[in-house]
Write a structure and sequence with these properties.
With 118 residues, this protein is of the alpha+beta class. Helix content is 37%, strand content 29%. It has 4 helices and 5 strands; from the N terminus they run βααβββααβ. Strands 1-2-3-4-5 form a 5-stranded mixed beta sheet, with helices on both faces. It is globular. The N and C termini lie far apart (32 Å).
Length: 118
């Protein structure tokens, strides 16, 4: 079916913690860097029906305007086969297709905003 994508900045430690819980990774560890203005964290979500689904988290170095880290659920990386058991379970559940599409959305967003990607 149709998927609508959103890219939104996470603006509080509570939002970072919620993203970390949803994605099973440690994005909340960026709280101090975000508070200092050195890093901005962005969440890419798929909206297939009423409920948004967190798919990808991106860290942006605000000084260099460069995306420095991109992670999916369980620290999965787009275009790489998952190494963990949790990642392989996500792969079997069809998450990889969403992760790859989210990477395309991320690249479009980077281009539109005039950013770079490490």
């Amino acid at each position: 079916g149709k998927v609508r994508w959103t890219v939104r900045e996470l603006l509080s430690s509570q939002e970072l913690a919620a993203e970390g819980r949803a994605m099973n990774h440690c994005v909340v560890s960026y709280s101090d860097q975000c508070a200092a203005g050195d890093t901005a964290i962005w969440s890419i979500c798929a909206h297939r029906e009423a409920q948004p689904e967190n798919v990808l988290t991106a860290a942006l170095d605000t000084r260099r305007q460069t995306v420095t880290e991109v992670r999916g659920r369980y620290n999965m990386v787009p275009n790489k086969r998952p190494a963990s058991a949790q990642g392989r379970a996500q792969e079997r559940a069809g998450y990889m297709a969403l992760l790859q599409r989210a990477n395309v959305v991320l690249n479009q967003w980077i281009k539109r905003e005039g950013l770079q990607r490490d």
